[in-house]
């Protein structure tokens, strides 16, 4: 028999902590401001929106992968913190609504949606069976259908285990996770192709799906760390999620910092080495006109500095250091997505627009508002998971 975990914390999110209303308020104001910007420059609106949609979607999707992976591997260390990614991934079915502005702005975002452009471009004609507006919309429905089903199912069965104490549900969750990871990998790769890579339909990278995944998984750990530190600041789960969990998250974040750098450099090196004009021009546009400074920022912000700082063992247990690096990684992730997207709109050089900020606040407020709205509905920890005692004892 597995031992019953000894929990001394209050596991219910405080009802008097009105963070949800504040976040939704910020989100609504940000979206309204961005909506007003649409009438001033609708092209800028859609590009700014896409940057931030890809940013927050990456956190939700990486969280879904994390939950599936933990169940499939029967992981113990992560049980105490697993309700956080479960909550993020459970909201994907609602977050799917925010793909609608991207679909409405397809003509502004994606060059291949212009029939006259396709008619005079042999490359676009060759890709037309895939880069087709109707098929694009159908693919988004499939992607979010798969992610929503997996996220909703993994969360609900975990909550059911809390309520019934039926440990047999962990077998069901593990059996769902195996094929779930397979379908997740395929849909995430193609979603990254659709949302980001097809902005420039003449350029492609076969590693781009892994590149977006590596970015997402690294920033997911940074998000978890900051959320846990926020909960601690509110005197929540201070005896349940322990210092060792932060250390483990720091180790994982360090590991995926290296993995991200490996994937990003591999993509760059292969294109640089081949020196094919239609491939190198994509990088040339992003390494000139002011965009090179954004590249330097995210190069140091999400690899060089985190690698050097997190390399010593002690720094991964220092809350202030880990929190600072997490913020830097999140900022670098946003800058890198901006660097990927905006040169398609601003060919002649870097030009910052305020709608990027309002879209960030709008989508971010809604994204985290949905998180805390769901997070406070049930226990903040999977209390009846049979591996919870081991997760607590290990740390």
From TrEMBL:
Protein biosynthesis among keywords: no
Keyword Nucleus: no
Ranges that cross the membrane: 21-40, 46-69, 90-110, 130-152, 180-198, 210-232, 253-273, 293-312, 319-340, 352-372
Keyword vocabulary terms for this entry: Membrane, Transmembrane, Transmembrane helix
Domain of life: Bacteria
Protein name: Quinol:cytochrome c oxidoreductase quinone-binding subunit 2
Source organism of this protein record: Fodinibius salsisoli
């Amino acid at each position: 028999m597995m031992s019953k975990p000894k929990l001394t914390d209050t596991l219910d999110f405080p009802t008097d902590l009105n963070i949800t209303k504040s976040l939704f308020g910020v989100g609504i104001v940000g979206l309204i401001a961005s909506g007003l910007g649409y009438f001033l420059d609708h092209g800028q609106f859609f590009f700014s929106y896409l940057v931030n949609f890809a940013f927050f979607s990456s956190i939700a999707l990486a969280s879904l992968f994390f939950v599936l992976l933990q169940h499939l591997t029967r992981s113990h260390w992560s049980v105490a913190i697993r309700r956080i990614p479960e909550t993020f991934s459970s909201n994907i079915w609602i977050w799917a609504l925010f793909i609608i502005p991207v679909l409405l702005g397809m003509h502004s975002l994606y060059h291949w949606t212009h029939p006259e452009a396709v008619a005079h471009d042999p490359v676009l004609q060759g890709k037309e069976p895939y880069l087709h507006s109707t098929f694009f919309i159908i693919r988004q429905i499939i992607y979010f259908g798969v992610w929503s089903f997996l996220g909703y199912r993994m969360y609900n069965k975990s909550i059911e285990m809390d309520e019934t104490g039926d440990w047999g549900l962990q077998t069901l969750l593990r059996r769902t996770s195996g094929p779930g990871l397979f379908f997740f990998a395929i849909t995430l790769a193609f979603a990254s192709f659709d949302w980001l890579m097809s902005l420039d339909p003449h350029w492609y990278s076969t590693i781009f799906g892994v590149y977006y995944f590596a970015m997402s998984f690294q920033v997911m750990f940074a998000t978890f760390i900051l959320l846990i530190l926020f909960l601690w600041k509110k005197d929540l789960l201070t005896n349940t999620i322990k210092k060792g969990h932060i250390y483990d998250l720091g180790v994982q974040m360090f590991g995926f910092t290296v993995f991200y750098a490996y994937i990003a450099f591999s993509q760059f090196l292969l294109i640089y080495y081949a020196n094919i004009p239609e491939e190198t021009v994509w990088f040339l546009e992003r390494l000139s006109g002011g965009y090179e400074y954004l590249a330097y920022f995210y190069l140091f912000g999400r690899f060089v500095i985190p690698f050097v700082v997190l390399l010593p063992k002690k720094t991964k247990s220092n809350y202030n250091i880990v929190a600072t690096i997490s913020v830097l990684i999140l900022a670098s992730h946003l800058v890198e997505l901006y660097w990927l997207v905006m040169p398609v709109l601003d060919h002649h050089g870097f030009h910052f627009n305020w709608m990027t900020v309002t879209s960030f606040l709008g989508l971010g407020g809604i994204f985290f508002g949905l998180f805390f709205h769901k997070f406070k509905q049930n226990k903040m920890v999977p209390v009846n998971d049979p591996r919870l005692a081991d997760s607590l004892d290990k740390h």
